Amino acid sequence: MASRPNLSDIARQLGVSVATVSNALSGKGRVSRELGDAIRRKAEELGYIPSVAGRALSTGRSNVLGLVLADINQPLFPQFALNIEEAAGELGYGVLIGNSRGDPQEQERAIRRLIERGADGIVVVPRYDTRVTGHRWPIAVIDSPSSPDNTVSADHFNGGVAIGRHLRDLGHENVVIVGLYSGSNVQKDRVAGIKAAFDDRDLPIVWIQELERERGQNCPLGLVDFVKDGATAFACVSDLHALRAVTELQQAGIAVPGDVSVTGFDDLGWAGVVAPAITTMRMDMKRIAHLAIRHILHQLDANKHEAPEELAELSGGVPMELIIRQSSGPAPRARSNTDLAAVHARSE
Amino acid sequence: MASRPNLSDIARQLGVSVATVSNALSGKGRVSRELGDAIRRKAEELGYIPSVAGRALSTGRSNVLGLVLADINQPLFPQFALNIEEAAGELGYGVLIGNSRGDPQEQERAIRRLIERGADGIVVVPRYDTRVTGHRWPIAVIDSPSSPDNTVSADHFNGGVAIGRHLRDLGHENVVIVGLYSGSNVQKDRVAGIKAAFDDRDLPIVWIQELERERGQNCPLGLVDFVKDGATAFACVSDLHALRAVTELQQAGIAVPGDVSVTGFDDLGWAGVVAPAITTMRMDMKRIAHLAIRHILHQLDANKHEAPEELAELSGGVPMELIIRQSSGPAPRARSNTDLAAVHARSE
DNA sequence: CTGAAAGCGCTTACAG
DNA sequence: CTGAAAGCGCTTACAG
Question: Positions of the region Disordered (chains A, B) (predicted)?
């Protein structure tokens, strides 16, 4: 009894059976009010903490969920981790982390490892263009509504529409889209949304990954050329690209948003802090995390946790929120030649 | 046997005892080569996976460690999480995440929750100016060598020295330090290091938190004024501040590094991608993570895991690495009045 | 309402 | 080298 007190300790001190103590503490089998109170009081007094191992062994449930994150380059990593942890915690679950290092095979291995470690279910934020399937285990996939295995996600398409409209309302017509990789469902949906806001016009797109394959890691994106050709806005599919765009333009002497507007996606931590602060779309992480967790719990025992009905309503994804900041402003009036000359001059 | 096979299944199929199977699989009690091989083969064949709950209950060890991260604003969150997870995984441990939401009380609660969840030990990356003490449980604290409860950390002081030297070597003498909060041990050490590189001269410091308390969240840092007064470099204590500085300066028409150099700390994900890419100091996360984990395992059973002797050698912290990129360059020759006038003009 | 008993899957002395 | 037995802490039918 020097170490953690257990059910037997409580039972012994009270002269009752372990079963009764267990029942009283769990509130399951019926126990008289007085005895129940006495037991609870004693448990409190002894600082009783149930042994997760004991419970796990007898129930077959660990009360732990696994979270598999794609990799360090997923800029929303902390947001996912924290929100999933919080949502799980509220429902009595702990969260074990796994990491796929951006490798599809590792992703599978990570899932398996977590299952072997006893996770009752897994939340996975998958790597682009990878499928999470064939595990006969409760899983929730957070990706894009258009992804085949998707469980919950933000409504990236309409997020794109919203940001596209925002730019259009500001008078921008010559918009360039900037994305990382066309194989990402999330990015595809965002891009499609942005285009939709422009009547599905065929806006030019810069795919960074392609560009870097040609010109090398972290190469300039060559955005200044687009500006010279009349572009007045860059709609980026992530704040990360927006940041890259803003700095590249600023470095070339092009004012944001004076000469050109830039928008991002995700409202990453620093998006509101840089100069100019970045206009972006934010997803409702808290809600997404809750839905994912509840979806798993429902698979775990359908009668205790009803299916999150919202999930059905949300087949298009959880709405995103437009955050307007300084990086987007009115389109400059149709540029005169002198304006363009000025841009040329400054960027030499 | 429809579900996961267990030791009994293996034992029964082979007509041996569970104890022997356990011994064979763990390699502890001695078992004849042939029997051992047969058992291992059968285990493999059945796809045997040990039950963590069963093992935990009988050994009193969960083989899980807890990781408490300060909050979402800790920009190294993903790095810590991934590296700790990896280091723990290599030694057979899983990692449960906890989150202190930047609140000292929550930090304590998070630690306790993880212990209650059965974590064998805890790694904590504490919030500024908070102590992690009084838990009679294996703990490793990753902070700054000068922190009272510190276990492992980067050598922030000498990191500061290195970056200070770098600037000085480039000819910068009018250097302004930019930090968030003087209460942070990490930041204090970095600042002290930078100053040391300048013979402990009393370099001006901008503490962002103070500034924001006066002027409001995300206010401009007013760096242009320093430039007008002759500053040629800003040594920032985090890449985050460096980014803020770079964009603020660029927005004001001040060229980085042409007019002014800017350096950061931590080599955050985007530091190499913005324009100009940010010169920074990187910590050896992998090594730090390993040391922290091994320190915990040593506390857990000293005879199985020897104390990481390196820990003693590293009382000053794990060396940091200087990453030179484009945001730092030679100090402009002593500025003429016309230069200053130009800066004035551009920043109006 | 209360309790005796079995069992979850493993490990660990201890005998043989 | 191998195995019978006890025990880790809890939960869950089942009796009483």
Answer: 327-348
